[in-house]
Design goal:
- The chain has 270 residues and is mostly helical.
- The radius of gyration is 18 Å and the shape is globular.
Amino acid sequence: MGKALMRLEKASGERKDRVDEQQAAVPPQNLAQNMSVPQDWSGSLPHPFYSKVLKRWLDFWLAAILFPFFAVLMLPIALLVKLTSKGPVFYIALRGGYRNKPFNILKFRTMVVGADKYSGTTALNDPRVTRLGRMLRRTKLDEIPQILNILKGDMSFIGPRPELLKYTDLYTPAQQCILWVRPGISDPSSIHLINLDDAVGHDDPEGSYERDILADKNDRRVAYARSQSFGLDASLFFITLGCVLRRFFAGSKGRAPEGHGGTGAGQRQM
């Protein structure tokens, strides 16, 4: 299964070189025109029937089957969130979605209320994260409510991690393919960048994310979108499952074991 990620990483590097050459030849005014994407826009996909029809069907029925189990987990977690800190149970925020349509992503709240007014990126040892929130983030249990996003059709189990609108609005023409497919709970970039808090540090997490991480994440998202298939998604699903289980049992240090991480490079916000 690791070979799937290696192929994607190689493809993302090669594609980045080609994109840089293509963008250098595009006049600035044409580049600006291409930035605007109508909501009914659709690009060329390697497996369009799978991406647009079969994948959605599989996501819905798998989510419907898993929902009773997830609901059993969600109820006590929701109660703990409510009892251990002031504020709502869920964190709801806009993200760039399928066909460039914004949607509200759901997570269990892991920070104090109003934390995102200061920074949208979580720093290393961020004091805004609650004690319970640290555990939920480490085990990825804060992502469980996104099964509702999947049932609704906003998200998929596997797909590019949904990004803040201020970043999706800046996608280059070559990066617009990220919006061709539904965003997901896990993708190659979130597996690769599991310890994002460590990577951004604590001095300037948002600046560090934008300077050092965002471009690489987008390259991996592009490589995935242009290679999406049932085989690739199945590989990423089981890689993610294994990573989450290893992370869950990794111990109190909250660090991923050596090798692949788990989902949630999108753990930048609450």
